[in-house]
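Supplementary Text 2. Reproducibility record for the structural model of the 207-residue chain.

All settings were left at their defaults, and a single model was retained for analysis rather than an ensemble. We include the record here because the model underlies the residue-level annotations in Supplementary Table 4.
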Amino acid sequence: MRFDPMEDGKKATYFRMIESIVPRPIAWVSTISRAGTHNLAPFSFFTGVTSDPATLLFCCGNRRNGDPKDTAQNCIDTGVFVVNCSSYSASQQMVQTSAAYPADIDEFEAAGIDFSPSETVAAPRVRDAAISFECDCHDITEVKNDEGCVTSRIIIGRIKLIHIDDAVLDAQGRVDVRALDAISRLGGHDYARIGEVFTIPRPKREL
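Retained model, structure tokens:
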């Protein structure tokens, strides 16, 4: 079958994308508002950018009324955020923070999640997250539709500090994906855990 986004419409296209671009890692993003309110929300359009400089990105769409979501607004206002790893043990709490809480609600408190102060940025981090990336906003790119309206923002973060729990490191000091037990986003209400892990060495080019 063929699907034309212009004919299908944005809602149908959205479902085609989230059902096809799988599995997607989940950035559990913590921010702080100008007023000092803590915000926490998951985003599955998320990936690393480059190691030089150390950067990552996530994409944050608007609210239904067209206003920026709290995460995006806080990044615009304060210029900082933290990406926390979404592990299976906290999956229920992570999903709870996807609810559309008002901007003045502390989502750590609402979802029963403990936080720790970050060392390099004002935004807090999830205390029990196995991995957290403290970030400055490197760039925020607005994505506009054919009418010129901003519908989403690509938020690129410059990684200032990485926290990794020793419990998820192997004997060589590398992250053990089985111990990390990160979850990924699929289509609908579905998520996945790491299953079979296999290794394929890269080919060596003869000089």
